[in-house]
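Exercise (ungraded).
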Amino acid sequence: MSTLSVSNITDGTDTVETGYVVNGSAKAFCVWNASSGTPTSLQSLNVSSLTDTNTGQCVVNYSSSMANTDSIISGGVGNGGSKGWMYDNNSASSVRVETQNIASTPSYTDYDNVSVAIHGDLA
Amino acid sequence: MMKSQQVAPAHLWDRLAEAKSRLAPVQSKYRVLFENPAEPDAPASVLVPDPNWMAAALAGGVLPPIDTYLRDQNVPDGQPKEHPYAEPIGPMTEEEAIEYLVKKDISPQVWREYNGNRIIMKIVPVELIPSDRSFRNAWKINQTETEMAA
């Protein structure tokens, strides 16, 4: 693998330090379909596995751990409707994502387009 | 005489990103069913290997030795970890890759420390997992057959 080592990147008008680009990119992400059988990963980076622990609950395991538990965790569940997305039990090496139907009484539900992205410092 | 200089491997994250751009994802034909003995009332969990990770495992030259992850479990957050810069290992078979994932992503309570009589972990072909998620929160590992009870 070759490495391009530069301090700044420019488009001819604007210049930005490469540190902003490297540190600002998502360190892990995953989109999966949990609506039938077991979860199927549709896209991912830096994910070693998904652990389906229950209805509407999935643990995303990272390949390369984060430095600590203070990562920024964002995501959602797609395709409209009254859907809730939460995360829980995040550690430096994994995060549990939960999805619920929040139309009336919230209940854990499996959906077909669940996503999560993790920003922060790598170990 | 010139001495060859040892070059540290790239960070694991860089290797994974490079591998993702080069390798086609591989959907594993296996799943790992397990129950956590610390939560006897919880349903069985199902571990699904990530297709990009599996491609990197089969290709070799990307993932660190599993021992580095196990040692890093004892390293406090914020302290330097061993696995990101460990020398990558060679290609694995799919079966070896699944065993690696069991050690990496499942608690040692399940795969190393459990001494009970129940079967609490099985590696099964994906066809043996119910495709219907009805009663998902009641799934348990069947103790007598190779299939999983739903």
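Further reading is listed at the end of the chapter. For now, observe: Chain A has one domain: 14-119. The CA atoms of residues 27 and 110 of chain A lie 25 Å apart.
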